[in-house]
Design goal:
With 192 residues, the protein is mostly helical. The protein is built from eleven helices and no strands.
Length: 192
């Protein structure tokens, strides 16, 4: 499959091989990170457990490879990545691309989308076959945390934990009105 992925993305097989491992590690790392938020993890578990009991992992792999190179990935992949990473999805994709050594800036995000059906299929099968609930899946993920984080790109957890601070409306309004008249306003990315 690595050759097919490399061909679809226009990347080297070596970079793709690194990228596939890192993309799976990133998605799994996102799952581990979400275990800290039982409400969010419950929604993720609902999506995982809604997979058909007869999940075919080989079929999931072929579907994932077939979906590469299409703009934005599938709705399920986009939704799942948003649940995992929120506004940090692009940053995770960029980190993945840099770590793998991709030429194309979108290849990292493509591989993240590629990893989603594989992870959903694997855990969907485990949920059905092993009778896992949200709590037992949380325990399984946290018991494997170190090896999962090791598979993710270096600095992955820092990217997740460095979510940009967005000031509340009151803070923005205060900053705008607190600038004395005649003082030049300094702008930053977050406020002006």
């Amino acid at each position: 499959a690595t050759g097919q992925i490399a061909e679809k993305l226009g990347e080297s097989e070596t970079a793709v091989s690194r990228g596939v491992t890192s993309s799976l590690g990133s998605v799994l790392g996102g799952l581990v990170n979400k275990t800290k938020d039982p409400t969010a993890f419950g929604q993720i578990f609902d999506l995982i457990s809604s997979r058909p009991a007869s999940t075919n992992l080989t079929g999931d792999l072929q579907t994932a490879v077939g979906g590469l190179g299409t703009s934005g990935g599938t709705n399920t992949s986009t939704k799942f990545l948003g649940m995992l990473f929120g506004g940090r999805t692009n940053a995770v994709g960029e980190l993945l691309g840099r770590t793998a050594g991709f030429k194309n800036p979108t290849s990292g995000s493509s591989l993240l989308s590629f990893a989603v059906p594989l992870v959903l299929g694997f855990f969907g099968k485990r949920v059905h076959d092993d009778g896992l609930n949200a709590s037992s899946l949380t325990n399984l993920l946290t018991s494997e945390r170190d090896s999962i984080v090791a598979a993710a790109p270096p600095g992955f957890m820092s990217v997740l934990e460095s979510a940009p601070h967005t000031p509340r409306v009151e803070e923005r309004e205060f900053r705008k009105t607190a600038t004395p008249a005649g003082t030049p306003r300094r702008c930053s990315i977050v406020w002006c």
